Amino acid sequence: LVDFGIAKLRQRGSAAKTQAGFIVGTPEYMAPEQCEDGAIDARTDVYALGAMAFELATGRLPFQGKTVTQLLLAHLKETPPAPSSLAPVPKALEAAILRALQKDPARRFQDMASFAAALRAAGAPPAQRAAPVSAPGAAAPPPVVAPPAPPAPPLAAELVAPGAPPERLAVVELSRGGIFLRAEKELPPVRARVKLALSHPTLRSRLELDGEVVRHVSPAEAEAWRTAPGFAVQFTSPPPEARAALAAIADEARSAAPVVPPPSREAVDARLSALEARRGESHYALLGLEPDAEFSDIRRAIRGVREELESLRARPLAPGHPGRATALLGRVDAAQDALGTPAARLAYDARRGNARGVARCLAAGVPAALVEARRRELLAARPERAREAQQLLARAEVARKLGNASAATQAYEAALAADPLDPALHEAYAAFRRTGGA
Asked: Where would you tag: which of 49, 133, 195, 350 has the fewest CB atoms within 10 A of its CB?
């Protein structure tokens, strides 16, 4: 199964359009992140091989549709049936295939070698299945008892925030790009630059990293979401050796993560109430994101909330859950319409004065002509915005020359809030930040 699947994968990769070695032209095997034009890596191929393994084991594809659109939507939203419900498939093989078909790449095997090892193990006969032959009258040898698996090595983090002494905090979650630390009070402000030192038994020395605080989770939000309160730090351009170490630690921690039990009715009610309480807030607040979230994070959050609500609507725990979930799904659709593409998000963030969100859209390659057209519309409604922004820019430049970084940062950000679609303002602020002024 493994050898044939990999051969088939290579055959389709050579016949189809490819990008960095990943299949992008075969909708029957396309991973959810490909369907949304998201970032692809080795786990994308794991998904493709998982779909092929499903087909080889059951005689049919995991998802079926008459059109390409139907297939792509199925990859994005539908849960594949259990292979054992379609054919006599061993449980170990079924578990490996379904793990490879997880919507979230982080929940799949992290590379082809891991998936191949799991498939081969699923097809191998149990070790030492036959009992050893003993001499007549001899006592049977004692059973071999495997020692218990050692606990996962601990991960420790020491945080150094501006103007504060070093603080040791518990690590809730670690990924290649950032870390979530448990804390309940005195959180460093969002966008604060911090330094982290990670300690782990697999590291020869402490791993020192620079980062930026990108999100807070209050105790009330943590209770509603059944998670830990604290804050998230996004790593700032870690060197290659640090990225490799982070990847190894994150993969080890993920493989040792316990299975989370399904939520209770009380927890679901609290979660729905928390989402409904954000009815008058921004789309970012609904999704639990910062206003300068990356597009990949937006797509992931929309997909996660949508799957959560659709699952609840299909399998409610209380009579009122389907109606509440349907109403919230309407808000999720509106968030996707407003934030799902750079052009739409540009208009949404410009109206709200969210310059950091606009900067994400500019980095995504929104055409200059469209930016200028949106800016003319914005200034036509409030012509004083341009004059106000230039006055604030002059104030920022004076503060920068005087060495007052805090005042300069405030003035730059106020100027961008007044005229968020001025590319020259964005470039001036970016240059200021590159020199370490912010």
From this structure: 133
